[in-house]
Design goal:
The protein is an alpha+beta fold. It is built from 4 helices and 7 strands. The chain is globular. It comes from Rhizophagus irregularis (strain DAOM 197198w).
Length: 138
């Protein structure tokens, strides 16, 4: 490991800003959505931001209840079993998760063929700071 990366790793431990370390974590820990457009979008938010956006498999939700239907999706309320990432455990080298959490789910129509254009709503939320506990289930 180079001295510059050791310094960056040290900074990462203190400030959580080491992009190299974030990229390593992201590539090895989070499940894939099996959609390159979605995975690339989520990965860019994980590496470049302070909030962990992640793909959440549907089986990680309980008590899913239909709320409403819109032009591009159906909206549900659910309990996220694992809860959001709230930090990093440096000793165990793994993410720390909060408790289960009540969330809103958007079931996007034709989500298996999602395009960058359809991800625009998420990009807007992310760009304007509405970042708390954003997850994506397809």
């Amino acid at each position: 490991m180079s001295n510059s990366h050791r310094h960056m790793e040290y900074k990462c431990n203190i400030y959580r800003t080491c992009k190299i370390c974030k990229e390593k974590r992201v590539n090895s820990i989070f499940p894939s959505s099996e959609n390159k457009i979605v995975d690339d979008f989520i990965k860019s938010t994980q590496i470049n931001g302070n909030v962990i956006m992640e793909f959440v498999p549907y089986d990680k939700f309980k008590y899913v209840k239909f709320i409403a239907e819109g032009g591009f999706s159906k909206i549900y309320r659910a309990n996220w079993i694992d809860g959001p990432v709230i930090g990093w455990n440096h000793k165990e080298q793994k993410y720390i998760r909060g408790r289960h959490k009540l969330v809103a789910l958007k079931d996007l129509y034709d989500s298996e063929n999602i395009s960058s254009k359809q991800l625009n709503e998420l990009k807007i939320y992310y760009s304007y700071g509405l970042k708390e506990d954003i997850g994506l289930a397809l």
